[in-house]
Automatic annotation (TrEMBL):
Transmembrane stretches, start-end: 60-81
Organism: Mycena pura
Keyword Acetylation in annotation: no
Name of this protein: RING-type domain-containing protein
Taxonomy, superkingdom: Eukaryota
Alphabetic keyword roster: Membrane, Metal-binding, Transmembrane, Transmembrane helix, Zinc, Zinc-finger
Amino acid sequence: MSSDDLDCPVCIEQFAHRRLRYNIACGHIFCLDCLAKISPRLCLMCRKAYSEGDITQAPVASLSGSELALFVLYIILFYFIDAHDGMAAKRISPRV
Ligand SMILES: [Zn+2]
Ligand SMILES: [Zn+2]
């Protein structure tokens, strides 16, 4: 998988979880922020016209393997920090 698939060619920001990818009629992918700004409605990559009806959300499950691994790592990390803090708080709390 090339990294081009993960970047919006307009803003060159990597698609994060909250920044969804959208396909237009020609098959090129942009983020919704940039699609809203494009005027007239011509694909910036191939200049093909598209209408709002052509915009479809691209599947979200297209994270690369490394991104997915990082995401899972974060979840595990947060879970352990949370659990550890909970145990520490119980240990420190004074007995009444
Ligand atoms: Zn964009
Ligand atoms: Zn295009």
